[in-house]
Amino acid sequence: MWPAGLLLEAHITLKISSTPLKIVKVMPFFRTEDGCRLYYESIGGTPRKPFLVFLNGTFQNTFHWIRQVRHFQHRYNIVLYECRAQGRSGIGNKKLGIDVHAADLVALLEYLKIAKAVFVGISHGARVALETAGRYPQCVTQLVLCSTTATLNNRTRATLTLWKDILATRGVEATAWTILPTVLGQNYLADYQKTLPKMVKAIALRNRPESLRAHLEAMLAYPPPSLSSAKTGWPALVISGATDPLVPSEEARDLANQVSGVYVLIDNVGHTIQLEAPSRFNNELDAFLIQNDH
Which of 36, 81, 106, 149 sits CB 3.0–4.6 Å from 251 for a disulfide? Predict the structure, then answer.
């Protein structure tokens, strides 16, 4: 349902282009009120351009949106960040919870002087986007939710518990080997079979065991989102992969109905949609943004 996205950064760069990505990028840390350092990237900063905020999944980092940055940077200012307990971000002194993640996102937007933005989240990032939209609807212009459902289903709860137990007993690398076949679709796994060991090493390098453990435990305790407060008139798009074992299509469609949004099912794709089918993902997002552009 929430954890997603595992790919070696250098491998992505090689596959995208033989030339480097030329963008204006600021990559500092933002410190929350409890002293937690959150890593973020601000790309663009052009006046009058709208903002896109990309929120990645549990085992991803900001680089996993590179194809989306490349596609949308000419029309949008872009913000990416890693939630507390993810990647380069700290864990802070607060008890981890979805409410804390929502408050962190709003605090970051306020710090960057961004009044409103389009939220695009995948997996855990989509859950954060949904919670933020429900609690702080004034910050949202459009909402895109990928590879998530409104509530934690039994299969995902069991999967998260398994990952947490393997992490505690065997470490991050063993956890990564368990995660890969769940969050990556069969076609993607077949295409990148030889690079799986490098993907596992990359996951181990960018995830601290204590942070990852706290993150997984917190997700198991997330309450259902307040969808009633989320129906405030902004357009919504829900996307899921047809072969995603964590997000059944009927549950994703139900989420779309609950937020009065459009639902898109992408064939032959698993949980990590923006990596497995970047062109289709970008096209669907493009069409949605253009249709609802104000």
Answer: 149
